[in-house]
Amino acid sequence: MTEGEEIHLAMLSASRSPSTVNKGDLASEAHTADSMNGITGDPKYSHEIFGSSSAGSFMRQIQTAINPSMDTSPSHPRGKGTVTRGDSPRAQPAYSGYEKSTLLLLPPKAVADSLMQVYWDYDWTLYPIIDRGQVEETYESLWTSGDAMNISPLRMSIINVCFALGCHYAPLILPKERRDTGDCFFSRAECLYNKAKDGPSCERVQCLLLFGVYLQSTKNVFQCWMTVGEAIRIAQSLGMHLPEAEISSQPVSHREYRRRTWHGCVWLDRVLSATFGRPGMIPNWLFSSVPLPSMIDDEFFQDQIEGSERRPDGQPCIMAFMGKAIELYRILDDVLVQLYLTCNPREEEMESKLPHILELDSRIQSWVKSLPSHLQIQTAATRNTIVYRQATVLRIHSLHVRILLFRPTLVRYCRRGAPLYTEKPDVSTDPSLSEVMLFQCPRMCFRFAHELIEIFNLNLDPKTLGGPLPVWWYSVFYVYTAATTILVERFLEARESAANSESAASQAWNAAIHVLRSYGALSDCAQRCVAALEALYDNLSLNNRKKGNTSDTRDAAPDRDSFLGLYNHLNQPEEMNGPGLLPLTFDDLVWLDSILEYE
Questions:
Q1: d(CA 348, CA 137)
Q2: Quick check: 190 pLDDT over 80?
Q3: Which residue, 121, 45, 128, 125, is CA-closest to 85?
Q4: Which residues contact 400 (CB under 8 A, 6 or more apart)?
Q5: Which run of H or E residues covers position 34?
Q6: Does the keyword Kinase apply (predicted)?
Q7: DSSP H helical segments within 318-384, as ranges?
Q8: 580 pLDDT more than 50
Q9: How far is it, in rounded angstroms, from Cα 349 to Cα 335?
Q10: What does the DSSP assignment read for 292-328?
Q11: pTM for the structure as a whole
């Protein structure tokens, strides 16, 4: 970073508001709706959707039945008010002198341009939630008009979140300074959001979704959870979850950003449900109520109606990624529901889960075959950095899902007195398909963990911490998950013979630790993950040396106590550094402890 482009954190700082929740200026709707009855007056005065189960909708149906001339159907308002691409300019509250010098402060143009560009290239190409054309138009006007006071605070909030997310990718900011710099922009974005007095809108949903994405990199777990929940509720109040027959007359651009915004809600709902281990807000039947975003890039909204893997100019479609990623997250949701959230994995027989594993694995295979050629890592064009990154990220996502799919079989494999790791199951006398599956599933889990770690080891730039990879908080989560699987593989190898430092498992383990240590420059969460993994490894190695090859379970109690102590120490609430990035989760404890129990 040059001296003239240095970002001064003190200049960017702004007071952090306690919450992103904004009640909005809903005075115009107060006489037509309430929180218990829905709309009680004329629905044309409200932009919100109230379904047929609401008392107000029921009364309108009765009025229509008695007097058809009073028909107020449809209850779902059409047109621009329901799902707009953005808020139209409104009279905004005046900024105080202090707010003008803080909330409307911009970094030097060269720095701002760089932050916006890396946001568009690295974040928006994976999650194209906001309307790029509108935001870019507003951003350019900041430098041409010279007066940011005439721009909606909501739009200014979005621009500042883009700055904040761009900080995580920006090569002009040192890795150790990226988080603090991004936090300054995000604090300002929160303040601007809370000054926006607009009612519910598509742009407000998009802004909250960006907040949720950024909050995943912070310690504000509760705020992240509630912010995404608020975005989903606003989207539902606008009817964004309804079938598209209601807005069929809208332009392609409106249709596509409606789809992208709603499925952005679905995506973050699935992600946070998985990382927090909590039920999602959006039921599966709403997943398909709105079609996935079409494979139409923004530049061709005027030229295309139907999507295609190739754009009219012959280039691969950038928007193909989002639809395929959301399809995979739906499979992930089913993996979690069927294998992790429905029962205690230590009490249910694994054989009863094998049909689910087969069915889900088949769905993943079908999903892989359905990928456009430019999103398959084997055939992706490396010269197109955006497309190659999309293909790599999808491969990493799919490997992570398959690790979670097969991981429950590791516990069963280790607890049931399975044959030695290097031997094959004896099926010569009484063949059993379940025995063969329980033998092969753990090995597939190990194989996917090896590949995932190898992708990071080959593609991560140790200096800039960049590369064709997910953003760092997802990367740490994926590598940590894979490393816990490799830990079991190393333990199984050491159980049978002396540990071999040249084995594939040892090499994968060392590579995972190296990657996590590299990410430690960005977050102390990665450093804690390394400490947790090394503590677990030392504990398992000590356990193996103490007992040799004996199967005396009496010696396992102290080791389980050690795991409980380690779990309690590492998972204090104040130590949380982002959703899903705990150094040791309860699920990890259960299945690793189960292995010791067998020993």
A1: 57
A2: yes
A3: 128
A4: 452, 478, 481, 482
A5: strand 33-34
A6: no
A7: 320-336, 354-370
A8: no
A9: 17
A10: PPPS--GGGTTT-SS--SB-TTSSBPTTHHHHHHHHH
A11: 0.79
